[in-house]
Amino acid sequence: MEISPVLAGIPAIDRQRSNKRMAIKLAFVSLFFVGFGFAMVPLYDVICEITGLNGKTNTVAIVPDKNTQIDMSRSVNVEFLSHTMPGVGLTFKPAQFSIRVHPGEISRMDYTVTNTSGQVFVGQAIPSITPAVAAQYFEKLECFCFNQQTFQPNETRTMPVVFVVNPKMSRDFGTVTLSYAFFEAIKPK
Predict the structure, then answer these.
(1) Which residues lie below 8 Å from residue 135, measured CB to CB, with a gap of 6+?
(2) What are the φ/ψ torsions at residue 51 (nearest 5 degrees)?
(3) Per-position pLDDT tens, the chain of length 189
(4) Domain definitions of the chain by residue range
(5) Dist CA 85 CA 125 (whole Å)
(6) How far is residue 56 from each of residues 50, 69, 165, measured CA to CA in Å?
(7) Distance from C-alpha of 31 to C-alpha of 25, rounded to nearest angstrom
(8) 104: left (phi over 0), alpha (psi -120 to 50) or beta
(9) Phi-psi region for residue 55, left (φ > 0), alpha (ψ -120 to 50) or beta?
């Protein structure tokens, strides 16, 4: 094997040391990026919480403010979307595509889920709101997304979402979209 002209003038021991230092540096860089990859999820959650971005909604039921007045002077169009991951064997849809609500009024939308597979399905619905800045004003009082759901083979279930659009939400938001993606939580054995 022929040594390149650049390395020809460097003694073999110096090359070995240089290679060893480079390998150690690359190992540290690799470890840093692995750690950074694991830290991304909590960092992302903190940034979303601080900025109100990402459209994450509450993950536990809230207790509505008893003094909230319904703002009858305006209404908000709330659209409902549903998605399932390919191959999970579910049909998942809202009773209606959209409804008009007055801020401050308690509203309800039912979603129908059918397990079309011949196996038990355990899943979790993950919500998001668009536009993302409206998420802090969309308050869920009851939601099937708070817990994992178990569906028996060929079972159909209607599950409610009870919510309030907070009257403090800007008048600039005429439409808010609530979207759910249903993921498989546990692989059946």
Answers:
(1) 52, 54, 55, 56, 57, 128, 129
(2) -90, -20
(3) 565 655 566 677 777 888 888 999 988 888 888 777 767 667 666 666 655 555 455 555 555 555 568 888 999 999 999 988 887 888 999 999 999 999 999 999 999 999 998 899 998 888 988 888 888 888 888 888 888 899 999 999 999 999 999 998 888 889 999 999 888 876 545
(4) 5-51, 76-186
(5) 11
(6) 12, 25, 15
(7) 10
(8) left
(9) left
Q: Look at residue 133 and give its three-state secondary structure.
A: helix
Residue position matching structure tokens 């011949």: 118
Q: Which fold has domain 76-186?
A: Ctag/Cox11 (Pfam 04442) (2.60.370)
pTM over 0.70: no
Q: Which two tokens stand for residue 127?
A: 């919500």
